[in-house]
Amino acid sequence: MKKIALLSFLTAAAMFAQEATTTESTTSSSTKKNGKKSTTSSDSTTTSTDANGNATTESSSMTTKTKKHHGKIKQTTKSVDSHSSTNPPQN
Known about the structure:
91 residues
């Protein structure tokens, strides 16, 4: 019975020590000139660190612009994604 309790404790400790994650997200929207132009922006950043100290950052940004002129709608979407990894110095 003691072996099961010890194994459960070690498994739970290993799960918590594996990774730390932080996520930030921002969304904004604006409309101009009698509803003829609108802009929507969305940004998201996720940062993770594993048990070995390796850090990973993933970012995405999306901007959508809508323009209405003479009854026609023109929509433009721009999306940017990035990924970076950092390894701690080895001694």
